[in-house]
Amino acid sequence: MAEGHQAVAFSFAITHEGLDVNFDFEVIRLIARSAVRSWRKRSTRFQTSLKSSFFPGSLRSLVLTEAVFIGAEKSGYDVTFGLTDKLIVHFPKNSVEYRVLCSAILGLAGWTGVIFSLRELMRLLLKYHGWLYEERGAGRQVSLPTRAWLLAMQPFFRLFKPQLYSFQGTLPTLPVPALSSTREKYLRSVRPLLDDAQYARMEKLSLEFINGIGRKLQRYLYLKRMWSTNYVSDWWEEYVYLRGRSPIMVNSNFYGIDTLFKHPTRNQAARAANIIYEALLFRRAIERSELEPIMVQGTVPLCSAQYERVFNTTRAPGIETDRIIHLDDSTHIAVYCHGKYFKVPLYVKGRLLRPCELEISIQKVIDDDSAVQPGEEKLAALTAGDRVPWAKCRQEYFSKGINKVSLAVIEGAAFVVALDEEDFNFDPADHTQLDRYGERLLYGKGYDRWFDKSFTLVIGKNGRVGFNAEHSWADAAVLAHMWEFVLAEDVLIPRYKEDGHCKGVPECIPPTPIRLRWEMPQACIDKIESSYQVALALLNDVDLRLLAHSAFGKGLMKKCRISPDAFIQMALQLAYYRDAGKFSLTYEASMTRLFREGRTETVRPCTIESSQWVKAMIDESISKEERIRLLRLACVQHQRGYQDAMCGKGIDRHLFCLYVVSKYLEVDSPFLKEVLSEPWRLSTSQTPHGQTSKLDLAKHPDCISAGGGFGPVADDGYGVSYIIAGENLIFFHISSKRSSPETDSNRFAQQITNALADIKELFGL
Known about the structure:
By secondary structure, the protein is an alpha+beta fold. Helices cover about 45% and strands about 15% of the residues. The strands form six sheets. It has an eight-stranded mixed sheet, sandwiched between helices. A six-stranded mixed sheet has the order 16-22-21-19-17-18. Helix 3 runs antiparallel to helix 5 (about 95-125) and helix 21 runs antiparallel to helix 22 (about 625-645). The longest helix has about 30 residues, at about 95-125. The protein is globular.
């Protein structure tokens, strides 16, 4: 076996003739190639860091500057305005050589000064967010300050080619909102949810807070903002994600689905090979900083910090808190198939395996007929259940010996691949097939996804694909970018033969996949089974419904001159009111990546204006014109809330951080305690697309992914993810709990359909 061969690669013995040393030259060569690869990656990372630190400067501009200064000195021209003469006195003598050296030093100093001045100018320009509040559409005029700002920003993108991390050093830090502003916005957001007595009580509580302990807590946040890159993100990662002790399957992890209108091959091994290869191309682009940074409206960069942990990352359980483990490199993936785990090498002699070569490796895994080891099949149920039992089990049974080695292979993999034994199907006439597809990606069987891994690629038997992703290390938009890149590469570029296999001819025999070995006693197997029962109860309670709304899409929303996101959010408010008979606190995820290390902020779509419009839609005495007027007001208010959230003027992250500080200081705040305990019965999120230039959706509308989804946040609420997939298509992923008598995902899907149709009818379209 490969393990045995590696174990005796190096040995020594003491004999009567002296020290006898034996070593395997092949293993030494493998180690040497690994060392060379490691140094190359470090060199690339150093070069990337250097380029980012001096953006918008470049080596070419430095050389040109030096050439001008040195050439001018040799030609007798003084372009340093006498500085050369002042500097030369500090050298041994006033010679041509030393004058040239002085010119080179001054050239470098001048170049550095210009570059850092430009970086400071860019930092100042990126603090301007007035562009976000500009009205858009035909006949709308852009304000003079925004036009001047756009003009000043253009040179940075016209003259220089930014890399992935080029803007990291120039992005502004997330501001801390004023207490009075947060209080005012909070009270406004809860007004539709409270009666007069409840609202008066909340007014009093909030006023006592900002005039009392709130001021002290706020000063600590100002201090944290001064000392840290982002005053929210590290606490958000730790307290919202890593300290949670409940299962992350369904409760935290999310999923993404394949493009449904393209099915390039039904060969499982071939599709897996290409998807793996394309994911590794994305990893290479991140490592070399060749990936294009995301630019809002082609002008404003978003923070790229989260891309660093897309690959080679896992979440490790702990008793009180989990931790994220990220490796600089990984040369293998872990594959789960037929209840067995395999280590699949990705490189041969330092070269990434081609898809046709990877297909051979994957097919070997599929064809493997060895027996499943005791406890192996359901091992990943540990990652699906409660965190504390998993942490204790990991420490007791996986901290030494062969189990530790095998676990390290999975956790140290670039990512995990699950080869499923059933087909993933889509039929517009039968939504249950798409529902089943989503269920397989969200939780599978409860033991066939490694839920701790940054992401697990899931390959159906018929070649359709998807992923399940852990949430703590990054937000869904980053995975959506990777997924869009992968699908664009896989669907738009001809990568399959007519028989469904990968194109190309193998240039080598790929390394044989290594079967992972386990030695699990019955006590360990019992703990695995216990975690599986927890996961099984959780997944059996999920009611997931995927709705493909094809009556209309973005095209009709544009005709209504309403923001597509606001259009859908208002439809969700109407649908929820009809479904539940009341308004509820609603969560919509927005991003704060306009700031360094920004993650998300909450938009609260249930507003005074949206509730007035919903009531008008229920009241048959209200005219169509009045309903349209109220809808437009609600959409404008929603957009303003979204814009404020993106600009660091949101409500919830500020209140969250104030609450964290209060806990550190052991100070009790009735206001914060009540605010942070309010349930989000309607939790929503829009899946972004169009993040890669490789995929032009106008030319290839059928290549878009169907988006993805997540589990319900509240026991008696809904989780709704949606993607505006084109001019005439919207996908909704609706989740709830079967155990709740208040919710029904299929019923809510119908309410959404009706609400969208009612808005369309308002405009007579």
